[in-house]
Write a structure and sequence with these properties.
With 204 residues, this protein is an alpha+beta fold. It folds into two domains: 23-144, Immunoglobulins (Immunoglobulin-like); 152-204. The chain is built from two helices and eleven strands. It has helices spanning 3-23, 154-202; strands spanning 31-35, 38-44, 55-64, 70-72, 80-86, 89-93, 96-97, 104-106, 108-109, 118-125, 128-135. Strands 1, 2, 3, 4, 7, 8 and 9 form a seven-stranded antiparallel beta sheet that branches. The longest helix is centred in the last third of the chain and has 49 residues, at 154-202. The chain is rod-shaped and about 120 Å long. 12% of the residues are buried.
Amino acid sequence: MGRPVRVLMFALAIGLVAAFPLAVRPVAAHEHVTAGEYELILGWRNEPAVAGYLNGLDLGIQHHFSNGTTAWVVGVAGNLTANLSTGQASVPKALEPQFGRDGWYTFDVIPTRVGIYSVRLTGTLGSTPVDVKVNLDDVAPASDLAFPVDDPTASDLLSRLNAAVAGLQLLLILALVVACLGLLVAAGGLLLGRRASRNQRKMP
C-alpha cells in the first residue's frame, strides 16, 4: 500500500471518529413516539436541562416507508404546532429547522423553574394526523452543576443574620423561662424550710 493511500485512509478514519458523536446525537433520554409511518424523537436540545439557561426542543422526524427504507422529513415545521408546559403554565412555540441537521427541528426557551416540562405536538405529517405529548427530562437547579459555589449576596447574608438573631431570641426566652422556674423552685424551697423550722420551734 502506497504512502498516499495510507494518508488518505488515516484522514478518513479521523473524519469518521469526529463525525461519530453527531451521528449519535439523539441520546437515550430522548423519547420515541410513532405516528403512522412517522417516528418522532423528542428531548431537550442540551442535556441535562438547567433552570435559568438557554435550551430548546430537540425534535427529529423520520419517515419509515413500507419497503423498509427510512428518510428524515424536512420542510414540515409549519405543519406542526408545539406547546410547552410545566405545572399550570403553558406557551405555544413555533418550530424552526435546525441548521445542518436535516429532519430536526427546535425552538428556543429558557426554563425558569425546576421540575417536569412536557411538550405537545399537533398537526399533520403528510396525511397522517399528529397529536402526541411527551414529558421531557426534569429541569435541574443550577446549583447542581455550579462550581465554584457563588458567594452569598447581601440579601442572603441579611437573611442568615435574621435567622441567627431569631434563634438567639428563642434561646434567650428559653433561658429566662428556665431562670424563672429556678427562682420559683428556690422560693418554694425557702418557704418550706421556714415552715419546717417554725414547726420545730412550736414542738415542746
